[in-house]
Amino acid sequence: MSCTHCGLCLESCPTYTLWGTEADSPRGRIALIEDSLAPDGTVSAEMAFHVERCLGCMACMTACPEGVPFADLLVAARAAIDRELPRPVTERARRHLSRTALARSGRAAVAVRGRELPHHTPARGDPRGRVGLLLGCTQRARHRRIHEATLTVLSAEGYEVIAPRLPDCCGALELQAGPHPHALRRAQATIDAFAAVGGVDRIVSSAAGCGAAMKGYGHLLGTPQARAFSSMVRDVHELLLEQPPRSPLAPLALRVAVHDACALCHAQRAGATPRELLRRIPAIELLELPREAGACCGAPGLYPIAQPEASAALALRQARAVLEVAPDVVVSSDHACIAQLQRRLRALEQPLPVHHPIELLERSILAARPTG
Questions:
Q1: Interval 243-269: pLDDT, tens
Q2: Half-sphere exposure of residue 162, counting CA atoms within 13 Å on the CB side?
Q3: I need a labelling partner for 262 at 20 to 30 A (CA). Which of 75, 201, 207, 315 fits?
Q4: Do the domain assignments include residue 142?
Q5: What is the DSSP letter of 259?
């Protein structure tokens, strides 16, 4: 399928709405990528400049009526850039250190704090299944509370949970940034880690970006093992919607603004699932953000490090959209989005609480349990 230049993607693209330049639109980037990756083409500095300004949010794929596989083009382009474009040694070192530091941050944090999340969490009541939970890297380091809430909710809903110490990172960061060989190695290491656990019905992630990466392993690696693994991957919201709810839920009288994590909404096409779960909670009121163009908060992968000004501008736009609906709390389904919104709301001197939907579900479940 090829781009017909219909323009329906333009208003969905955060960078096009930010800068208004054709080369920073999906169709502009497609043209640059196809020219560079043609048999007689070369990776140009112009292509690299505009491709590296892309968030990889995949909103264009949701908007595209032709089904153009922009994600595949972007991964191929970034791999080619990393492989072929000369960069100063200092720039290559900076990129490498950024990726590896984030990938190792989870286990480094555990080593400092001396607290591992439980490897095994039993199901409460009759078991419904046995699932493997990806602990990941930055989420394990900075958002342990989300993992704790996930374990509580899954256990309450009848799932036995195995959370292996490895892998350190699922490879989403490398895949987003471009070094394809690194991503392949991390993808295979992730598959191997869960194979070593054995006997799980599903592989679960509460980080939308990691879930999207793991769902893509089958296409990325092309092996029967990888395809079987990807078919087992579920975002935590998807898993909880596969069976009727079991746990009593206490009312939460909260006005909740829902921020769509791009990796869940566009890459996984599961943007409705957090809303479906939260609507189960009595007394909760869900608030939709204004449907302005370019809903991404600027947090994907290493974008805040590689493109700090654009990332900050997009985060500011989203923070202002949040404040416009006057919520009590904000939810988002990816730890990077949560951190990004927290920073920008603090900068605006409006430090609203920002949580993962699973944290509100945990709060409702615990509040409904008998005391004493």
A1: 999 999 999 999 999 999 999 999 999
A2: 17
A3: 201
A4: yes
A5: P
